[in-house]
């Protein structure tokens, strides 16, 4: 009797182990799976901690201190003992507007005499002791280039408009140019309001304000200088506000010259030194860099120094002189920018230079020859040669060309086989010279017309004479 088979109970619970997936978590596979995405670092420590009331109060004070320091830094240049004047450009947009009249009214409202000795296109400085600031007015004429140059360095722009005459095309052109170039703060000032009926003065101001806000949305009001009160309000706004900077201007050093002096050299009166005096603004200026003078070009700097300025004493009306001039910066010959704008070409190094007139003329002739050759090739490509019986006129040949053009390749192959049979039969009766005399070739253009024939000129002339209606023999030959 054999051994009894062992009995095994199947377990009621089955354990399943998780597979090993480390092969998908390598550095390269994880980098490819991320596809450039980065994970944000989790915040820890003080950032997640809930701020107390004292912490929030300190944060607000710090933010206020930063804003206050920024305002002080932006207005420091216009305050103090050696303050720089705020530059205001006065632009007449209408033909009947005078920039000098606007500046006269602004001088009169603070009881300051208008400097008459200076001519046009000069800057007139107004010292507003009431507001402890200085304003430099630049009176402009109706010249687009002068207006754009003045707007480049101005802190504010006064737009002179008329209550009687509309802004002409020149004025609109100036406004569009200032928009494209970039402009500082704008003050629209209207003249001639006393000539308008009092009932219509508000309507005129609203109309002018709507026109100016189309070009300058920040100009929300139209001002006037006809009364001392209104003129003083304009001066108060100019002195109290912080000038809005132009970004492309603030990253570069710039200056409006108060005085220009030329010292000619002993050898040549046309060459010398040019001394420019003014307040330097914007970024820092290095003596190694070049300066650009509008309408004249680029020049090197010999030195930059601080000049002595006559200022008012702290007490009394006496005038005292500032310290002696001090040199601020001098150029380094090794790092100074050169005035050479382009490299001098060296013919020995095969450098590509600007082509000369002879080269340009030769290139034009070559281009013309290439165009003519392309046109000839295109015309020759459109032409084709057909074989017709000898003595066929151009009229008949044109019909044959049209018929052959409409046939497909199979028809052409059948026709060629028939022609071969005819030529074989003809070869049995005569020689090859006789076969050549029975057929001739003609060239057909793209328009289907006969261009030329391969026979002699006499045969061509004879075929030309036969042009016209076909004769009975020609019709019979064509049908055959």
Quick recap:
The protein is built from 14 helices and 17 strands.
Outline the low-pLDDT stretches.
313-319, 425-436, 455-467
Compute the number of structural domains. 3
> What is the count of helical runs?
14
What is the fourth-level CATH superfamily of the largest domain?
A: P-loop containing nucleotide triphosphate hydrolases
Category by helix and strand content:
alpha/beta
CATH architecture of the largest domain: 3-Layer(aba) Sandwich
List keywords for this structure.
480 residues; alpha/beta; Rossmann fold; 3 domains; six-stranded mixed sheet; three-stranded antiparallel sheet; 14 helices; GTPase activity; AARP2CN; Bms1/Tsr1
Provide a descriptive summary of the structure in words:
The chain is of the alpha/beta class and 480 residues long. It has 3 domains: 76-246, Rossmann fold (3-Layer(aba) Sandwich); 254-329, no CATH class; 378-423 and 430-479, no CATH class. The chain has helices at 27-34, 53-75, 99-108, 144-153, 169-181, 198-215, 228-240, 247-250, 357-382, 394-406, 409-429, 432-438, 457-465, 472-479; strands at residues 86-92, 123-128, 133-139, 156-162, 185-191, 223-224, 254-264, 272-281, 291-293, 297-299, 304-306, 311-312, 319-320, 326-329, 384-389, 439-444, 450-453. A 6-stranded mixed sheet has the order 2-3-1-4-5-6, with helices on both faces. Helix 4 (144-153) packs parallel to helix 5. It is extended, with a radius of gyration of 47 Å.
């Amino acid at each position: 009797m054999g051994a009894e088979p062992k009995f095994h109970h199947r377990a009621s619970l089955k354990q399943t182990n998780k597979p090993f997936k480390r092969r998908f978590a390598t550095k390269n596979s994880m980098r490819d799976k991320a596809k450039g995405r980065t994970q944000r670092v989790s915040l820890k420590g003080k950032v997640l901690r809930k701020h107390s009331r004292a912490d929030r109060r300190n944060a607000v004070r710090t933010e206020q201190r930063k804003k206050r320091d920024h305002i002080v830094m932006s207005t420091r240049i216009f305050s103090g003992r050696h303050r720089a004047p705020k530059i205001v450009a006065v632009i007449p947009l209408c033909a009947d507007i005078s920039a000098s009249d606007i500046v006269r009214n602004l001088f009169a409202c603070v009881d300051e005499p208008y400097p008459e000795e200076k001519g046009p296109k000069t800057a007139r400085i107004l010292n507003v002791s009431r507001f402890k600031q200085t304003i430099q007015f630049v009176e402009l004429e109706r010249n687009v280039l002068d207006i754009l140059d003045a707007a480049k360095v101005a802190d504010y722009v006064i737009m002179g408009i008329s209550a009687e005459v509309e802004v002409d095309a020149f004025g609109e052109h100036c406004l569009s140019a200032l928009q494209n170039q970039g402009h500082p703060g704008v003050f629209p000032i209207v003249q001639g309001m006393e000539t308008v009926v009092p009932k219509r003065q508000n309507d005129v101001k609203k109309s002018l304000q709507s026109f100016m806000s189309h070009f300058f949305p920040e100009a929300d009001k139209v001002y006037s200088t006809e009364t001392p009160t209104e003129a003083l309000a304009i001066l108060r706004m100019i002195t109290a506000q912080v000038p809005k900077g132009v970004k492309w201007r603030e990253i570069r050093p710039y200056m409006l010259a108060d005085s220009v002096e030329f010292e000619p050299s002993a050898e040549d009166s046309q060459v010398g030194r040019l001394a420019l005096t003014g307040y330097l603004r914007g970024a820092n200026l290095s003596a190694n860099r070049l300066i650009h003078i509008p309408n004249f070009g680029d020049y090197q700097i010999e030195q930059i120094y601080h000049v002595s300025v006559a200022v008012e004493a702290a007490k009394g009306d006496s005038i005292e002189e500032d310290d002696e001039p001090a040199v601020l910066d001098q150029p380094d010959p090794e790092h100074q920018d050169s005035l050479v704008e382009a490299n001098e070409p060296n013919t020995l190094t095969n450098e590509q230079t600007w082509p000369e007139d002879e080269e340009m003329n030769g290139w034009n002739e070559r281009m013309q020859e290439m165009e003519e050759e392309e046109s000839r090739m295109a015309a020759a490509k459109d032409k084709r040669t057909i074989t017709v019986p000898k003595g066929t006129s151009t009229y008949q040949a044109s019909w044959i060309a049209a018929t052959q053009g409409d046939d497909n390749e199979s028809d052409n192959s059948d026709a060629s086989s028939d022609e071969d049979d005819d030529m074989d039969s003809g070869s049995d009766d005569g020689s090859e010279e006789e076969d050549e005399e029975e057929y001739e070739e003609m060239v057909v253009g793209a328009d289907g017309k006969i261009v030329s024939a391969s026979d002699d000129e006499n045969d061509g002339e004879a075929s030309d004479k036969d042009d016209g209606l076909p004769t009975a023999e020609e019709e019979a030959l064509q049908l055959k």
